[in-house]
Amino acid sequence: MSTEKPRVSARIAAIAESATLAVDGKAKALKAAGRPVIGFGAGEPDFPTPGYIVEAAIEAARKPANHRYTPTPGLPELRDAIVAKTQRDSGYSITADQILVTNGGKQAVYQSFASILDPGDEVILPSPYWTTYPECIKLAGGVSVEVFADETQDYLVTVAQLEAARSDKTKVLLFCSPSNPTGAVYSPEQVRAIGQWAYENGLWVITDEIYEHLLYDGATATSLPVAVPKMADRTIILNGVAKTYAMTGWRVGWMIGPKDVIKAATNLQSHLSSNVSNVSQRAAIAALTGDLAAVHEMGVAFNRRRKLIVAMLNEIPGVICPTPQGAFYVYPSVKALLGKEIRGKRPQSSAELATLILEEVEVAAVPGEAFGPSGYLRFSYALSDEDIVEGITRVQKLLGEAKD
Fold first, then answer.
1. Distance between CA atoms of 155 and 148, rounded to whole angstroms?
2. What is 151-204 written as a DSSP string?
3. How far apart are CA 322 and CA 333, in angstroms?
4. DSSP for 67-106?
5. What is the pLDDT of residues 188-246, one digit of tens each?
6. Are 102 and 131 in contact (CB under 8 A)?
């Protein structure tokens, strides 16, 4: 008698669904069913991709050369544009053979970990973290070691915390500034201190710079290998056009790193997905070589919305919402509301509270469990001012009913 083998591999079965996409999908499904749901879940700008970028894609689609395979690392013209953009925005000098163009930022994240981790290697993962990081680490055979910084630290980990988490198995530090999900931004001094610590301990750093242009209140996005040049040979930079240019659906990201690691990642991608869509790559060239006027216009709107949503959330008793300096998220603490009675229920976790908010007032937010410890909610403010006011007003009314 034969024993039936598992239908899904243990490796893939262990992966959790993207919580942010799950919340966004549920909100969209409810909307499609006619429910007046306002979704604060997805991390994507609500603006259309700037017209000049769309026109470049239309023109590219007409050219037969773009209907064919192209080099796995990316179109030469796009890699050259990334070289120039990296020098312009970060002051970091690189060469084209240090770049691999990927199908969005997520592929760059996975391939980075897959290229440098061996089974059992530990990755120090500052928390709150983007929900995809631990899953990519797990897929690559690595082990996440979470280091949590709460709202009293403005969600910024310290060198002392990182050192306490380091072991003889530690190989990589994941670094993200501006941060998803908190919007926290490390100062140049903090970046330098963390980079120096990584150098002294022989660690790699994978640094996610996808939100580099979304900054407020004079904050700056310091690229770690610029702050600590000695780390250039052990740093992988992740970036893409999705957030800056409202191009989440175009799926163009990239990784920048030492040539041997980029070559290894290119070999992996050659079997995984070949080249990125040529039409999307042509659109990305237009984005990176154009001016930043449209980006600045979006930034003005995001800044206005940021101030609006922070003020409204902080009006709710029991909610503490730090003011983020980057990205387009707020990450309020709702710990004081857990266990309180709200419309006959007593949510014990932020996941239960998020479910209650969706069911009672049809507002979708992502619970803190998706990014680390419970007790928090993530709201994206990449939606209209009107939707922010309507959605947070509903939340204010509901949570204002909380009682012991």
1. 8
2. GGGTT---HHHHHHH--TTEEEEEEESS-TTT-----HHHHHHHHHHHHHTT-E
3. 9
4. GS---TT--HHHHHHHHHHHHHHH-----GGGEEEESHHH
5. 999 999 999 999 999 999 999 999 999 999 999 999 999 999 999 999 999 999 999 99
6. no
CA distance 67 to 37: 40
Closest CA to 156 of 132, 202, 189: 189
User: Going from the N-terminus, what domains does the chain have, and what CATH number goes with each?
Assistant: 10-48+294-399 (3.90.1150.10), 66-289 (3.40.640.10)
Q: For residue 109, what are the CA distances in angstroms to 112, 115, 185, 238?
A: 5, 10, 20, 7
Beta strands 99-102; 329-330: pairing state: unpaired
- Residue from 159, 124, 167 nearest 144 by CA: 124
Amino acid identity for residue 217 in this structure: D
Instruction: Express each pLDDT in 314-339 by its tens digit.
Output: 999 999 999 999 999 999 999 999 99
Note the pLDDT of residue 116.
98
- The amino acid sitting at 260 is D
Inter-residue contact 364 to 26 (CB < 8 Å): yes
User: Is the CB of residue 37 less than 8 Å from the CB of residue 31?
Assistant: yes
**Ramachandran area for residue 204 (φ above 0: left; ψ -120 to 50: alpha; else beta):** beta
